[in-house]
Amino acid sequence: MTAGRRHHVPAAGLLLAVALLVAGCGYTLRGTLPAHIKTVAVPVFKNRTSEPAVENSITRAIVEAFSTNGRLRVVRPEDADAILEGEITRYQVDSVAFDASANVRQYRLTVTMNLRFRDVRENKVLYERTGYQERADFRVPAAVSETLVREAAALRTAAVDIGRAVVSSTVERF
């Protein structure tokens, strides 16, 4: 090499070298759940809102999402390796679309939660997430009674989305 002249390493070669170094050291970009965690319990979430029974829909959807995910088996708290605890802190319905006469035609349902995933055996918190939100929009006709039916359906839709997102956040982060 001559003075003043730099040697350039192709970016792909440098990236490959870093990947091999990281792999050789036993590191991965995504970890795994601790090996002893095979089961999870999901007690009914606490409802800190004025919306009746919202905790039942959310908890049921999360249990179903764990069951279909297949990475952890859902069991009773006394038999669990880990426990996912939660509380619903906000349930809010907002108007988001109107017709020409200023009547509401679409609402947005937002559910906010706090979550904690605990390793029971080692008595430590694996992750804690506050202020987690999920939303679902729903359209309504002019009848008020239909609005209530649609809101209940939107909660079921949001609960399924929340369940999937919570399970994904729980098991995929490891």
Give a brief description.
By secondary structure, the chain is an alpha/beta fold. It is built from 3 helices and 6 strands.
Structure, described:
This protein has 3 helices and 6 strands, in the order αββαββββα. It has one domain: Lipoprotein like domain (Double Stranded RNA Binding Domain, 2-Layer Sandwich). It is 34% helix and 32% strand. It has 174 residues and is of the alpha/beta class. Strands 1, 2, 3, 4, 5 and 6 form a 6-stranded mixed beta sheet that branches. The two termini are 46 Å apart. Strand 4 and strand 5 form a beta hairpin. The model is unreliable at 12-30 (pLDDT under 50).
Provide the residue-averaged pLDDT.
81
Radius of gyration over all CA atoms, rounded: 23 Å
Number of strands: 6
Low-confidence runs (pLDDT<50, min 5 residues)? 12-30
| Residues in helix, % | 25-40%
CATH class: Alpha Beta
CATH superfamily: Lipoprotein like domain
Q: Give the N-to-C terminal Cα separation.
A: 46 Å
List the domain count as a whole number. 1
CATH topology: Double Stranded RNA Binding Domain
Based on CA inertia axes, which overall geometry fits? elongated
